[in-house]
Design a protein that fits this description.
By secondary structure, the protein is of the alpha+beta class. The protein folds into 2 domains: about 90 residues, Nucleic acid-binding proteins (OB fold (Dihydrolipoamide Acetyltransferase, E2P)), CATH 2.40.50; about 300 residues, 2-Layer Sandwich (BirA Bifunctional Protein, domain 2), CATH 3.30.930. Helix 5 packs across helix 7 and helix 5 crosses helix 14. The longest helix has 23 residues. It is elongated.
Length: about 425
Amino acid sequence: MIMTKFIKIEDVLSGETKGKVHLRGWIYRKRDQKDLVFIILRDSTGLVQLTCKGLDEAKKATIESSVEISGEIKKDSRAPGGYEIQVDDFKIIGLSERFPITKDQSEEFLRDMKHLWVRSRKMTAILKIRSEVFKAIHDFSRSKEFVEVQPPILTTSSCEGGAQQFKVEFPGKEVYLSESWQLYGEAMITSHEKIYTVIPAFRAEKSRTIRHLAEYWTAEWEWAWGTHDDMMKFEEDLIVYVIKHVLKHCEKELKELGRDLSELRSIKKPFLRITYKEAMKKLEKPQDHDITDKEERELIKKLGSKPVFLTHFPRKLKAFYMLPSKDPKVVEASDLLVPGVGEITGGSARIHDLKQLKEAMKLFKLDPKDYEWYIDLRRYGTVPHVGFGLGIERLVMWISGAKHVMDTIPFPRTMDRVYP
């Protein structure tokens, strides 16, 4: 019976720990040779090789069995990480049945088995990166004196028009899952002026692309007195900060995923900017064409595969609350596009004039009765303001090099997938 303090595999691989150690984890790989068993043990911090001689429990252990071991650290250049453990005590905690995930499984199968696939080295690395992205967002926002607030998830009005909202049962009311905090964020800027939130959001996306989810996490910012240009500069600072943070804390995971670190290190501000009109010329599309995600990635390639702000969208392609520019046919709005993904942020200056807001609602055929409280914000001390939202899974997808947004969240939800 092992009765002692356990260390992590990363402590072994650091080269600073000597002598006898005690580890626990799961069997990642196993190879039998007569009375000798070679095992690759994994825990949350890495992999290490075990050499087990004459140990019956080691022979019985199967892939993904959980175990506790004791043994002596030995340096071995042939072993993963350059060290192995010569085991003298081996205990099976949870004997695994035949593990259903093997090499060369389809992506769909792996997503069906996500409750088991989350323990893979790939998912372990991506979810570590995801965790650090969340931390960096919070740290950066607070360093800029933004106050975190929590808006409701249940709402009676739409931020983006309502076509993509999930309706939920609610006594005597039409209620939906929130697709954005934005309208509520605009209400709260009159107290703290600079606010942000990190919350789940829901859209009944019919799109089946590499970057769409029905349930996803979003970070959103809203602040009083800001301009559209202020907002884009803030986004640049944020993205550069997050990337530097992840490079510092997740270099091992990025390398394990095969990510090109030089590409991430090359991300500098200011980012490129191109108007929607100029972009359509480059793509040889009509000026009122609604750009697709595939076309966004094509545009990025044409511009040198660097982050780029796509600005001044045709008004009819954006939401009712966005502030018209000097040319009333376009709005003071921008999306940040990044290589391999396309749009990761979207934001704008907001209409703050009461009369102009009512005109916009009429133009977009919205019933003012559904937005009375939102209209009130223009009646009582309105100010110019801006805000934007960031799709966290899309950001993680770009930073980690994942090929699909479903691989950046533990249990993805799409219009086709609600299991496991």
